[in-house]
Amino acid sequence: MCSYGEKQGFLKTPSSSFHQQSINGDEILRYQPPVDLWRKFIYCTSLTGPVLGSVDHMQPQDFARVLSPVSVAHFSQYKLMRLLIEQLKDIDFQIRGDELMNSDDNKLLEPEILLGYECTSVNATKNGVTVTACSTSNGKHATKCFQCSFLVGTDGAGSTVRKLMGIGMSGERDMQKLISIHFLSQELGQYLMNERPGMLFFVFNTEAIGVIVAHDLKQGEFVVQVPFYPPQQKVKDFSSEMCEKLIVNLVGRELADINVMDVKPWVMHAEVAEAFLAGNSRVILAGDAAHRFPPAGGFGMNTGIQDVHNLAWKLASVLKGIAPPSILSTYETERRQIAIFNTALSVQNFKAAMAVPAALGLDPIIASSIHRTINDTFGSILPTDLQRAMLNGIFSIGRMQLSESLLNENNPLGSSRLSKLRQIFEEGKSLQLQFPAEDLGFRYSKGALVSDGDSSSSAPETPTGRRREYIPSSDPGTKLPHMTIRLLSEYSSEGTFSTLDLISGENVEFLLIIAPIKESYQLAQAAFKVAEEFKVPLKVCVMWQEKTSDGIGSSETAVVPWKNFVDVVEAKSCPTSPSWWELCQMTDKGAILVRPDEHIAWRTESEIKNDPFSVLNKAFSAILGLDSYDKISVF
User: Which residues, in sequence order, are CB contacts of 502 under 8 Å at separation 6+?
Assistant: First the structure.
């Protein structure tokens, strides 16, 4: 299997696919900045000037680890990439950089990452994929062809793989054009840490308007985002000197150590690929290649991680001969509906962000209309320099609405605008950061699962751009709820772990959760027999409650001759906390079957009195997309 990534590199993975828990949440939390340095969005006239308002996006429940074994983190993508590379090295991946491959070397070692290669063509047949790639090093150019069973395109919003396969995008295009300025300033970082810590700083003054993203205040690392209006403005206009002047205008004072690292233009879209699979389902899109959102709410990275979490076990199942290739169609079925929903949600959140400048008399829609009018009316008549001067003059006049003489409580218009601004913040109608219901509570309504058939509960709510809390559920298609548990054999110990840790990170293994009662043990026996017939690894978890655990040793005799089981007991921090089955909104007569990606594939809310083997046979057949008597060939 090959994966083509955004930084012009190829990744070859063994058939065992990714290690699900190669980087745990605690490791990310250890490397992230302290939460008090990034929990707020601050709206101001400059980083050193008056504050118009601020929004604290963290609530007490975000730290409690009741709904998740880890808390929310602020972690830049490039830092995550560094961690991933190090983890890949630890599991014996070979990293190859600028050196060219030998002319007769058209094979990737397994596993291996090649950096510096650009995909130029993709040819997919029913038997596999041929990928052509080129690389230039030290003035030498080489073209290579690679053979693989599947190609996963994770090559970003401008995906070459998507374009080569002729897959279109649907949604809103060209919502906004921006310039991104990456810069360093220890002086600014230290000032903000001491005086005004935050993650995003929305700056509005008569000289400049922009958003400063504080990636790491301790390291003094920032990115400035400012509107970009081509063709009147050009990327080359943003020289280091011009960028430094812009930064000073946004900061509100001179800085002695500004170091402009990079300047890049980009276009904001809200689009989803019309297909996630192509070329006989041998070419697969994931991440930004499959969907691109406004950067509002962190949906880009989170949705991309969810994509590959969903895809990895399905690819591994096909490569291991557990499931037929048709199971890959459920990747598109499940993930595309989530991408569409998250696109709409990020658009709503972006519109909430635009409500702030609009309240200050700076409607972005009007600015875009002015730019479009200049292009349509004078674009072919006036010289570009004159058009630029006209555009800058109009925008300069518009920014005068931010002058101190107007924007103050003593001016009736200014007072009205400030009051409207406060109302936006108080009602939570500005740009939001936290979306627990969408980050943790997303549900697949159909796909590699057996639905309860309750269409009302599967219909997603209309996106509003407002924070909604996550409510744990055991509905098929939802994520397995988190509860703190411990091994029954270590009932008196302090060691605990999460129900999510019951999912194997190394194998394609399903998990059946039952209570320690006779009928459920019979169900477990039937599940083991079905799994053995389908050659599907299965583990059974027997969930004990504290009140029934005294004097009980093990479920060993109840599931003999099978050995892959674990007895656990609820580790409640509070006597009034719900039991496991109450958390799942079920009774202990039921059972839950969980997929390798932590999503619930099937459940029964009551005991199965007649022929549990037949019931589970049908469930596994539906989940894996095969008839119970099919034989899957390994390829």
Answer: 511, 513, 539, 541, 566, 568, 594
pLDDT of residue 631: 43
Three-class SS of residue 297? Answer: coil
Of the listed ranges 13-17, 384-388, 539-543, the one predicted with least confidence:
13-17
Output the pLDDT for position 136: 78
SS3 content of the chain, % helix, strand, coil (to 5): 35, 25, 40
For 625, the token pair is 């997309």
d(CA 226, CA 222): 13
Q: How far is CA 402 from CA 52, 355, 418, in A?
A: 11, 15, 11
Q: CA-CA distance, 477 to 458, in Å (whole number)? A: 9
Which pLDDT band, with edges at 50, 70 and 90, does 282 fall under? very high
- pLDDT (0 to 100) of residue 14: 34
Q: Where are the beta strands (DSSP E) in 256-305?
A: 259-273, 277-278, 283-285, 291-292
The answer to whether residues 407 and 417 touch, using CB atoms and an 8 Å cutoff, is yes
What CA–CA distance (Å, rounded) separates 303 from 288? Answer: 9
Taking the C-alpha atoms of residue 368 and residue 357, their distance in angstroms, rounded to an integer, is 13
Buried b (16+ CB within 10 A) or exposed e, 531-543: beebebbbbbbbb
Contact 484, 495 (CB under 8 A): no
Contact 617, 627 (CB under 8 A): no
Beta carbons within 8 Å of 584's beta carbon, 6+ residues apart: 472, 473, 474, 481, 590, 592
Reported in sequence order, the residue ranges of 67-128 that DSSP labels E, i.e. its strands, are: 94-96, 112-115, 118-124
For tokens 């292009």, name the residue: 375
* Identity of the residue numbered 496: T
Single out the residue of 545, 574, 540, 573 nearest to residue 558, CA to CA.
Answer: 540
Task: Give the pLDDT confidence of 406-451 residue by residue, as tens digits.
Answer: 999 999 999 999 999 999 999 999 999 989 999 999 999 999 999 9
CA atoms within 13 A on the CB side of 6: 14
pLDDT confidence of residue 486: 93
In degrees and rounded to multiples of 5, residue 69 shows phi and psi of -70, -15
Q: Strands across the sheet with 2-5, in order?
A: 94-96, 112-115, 9-12, 2-5, 151-154, 283-285, 277-278
pLDDT at res. 92: 85
Exposed/middle/buried for residue 58 (C-beta within 10 Å: 0-12, 13-18, 19+): middle
**Alpha helix stretches (DSSP H) within 32-98:** 77-90
For 528-582, the DSSP string reads HHHHHHHT--EEEEEEE-GGG-TT---SHHHHTT---EEEEEE--SSTTSPPHHH
State residue 20's pLDDT score: 39
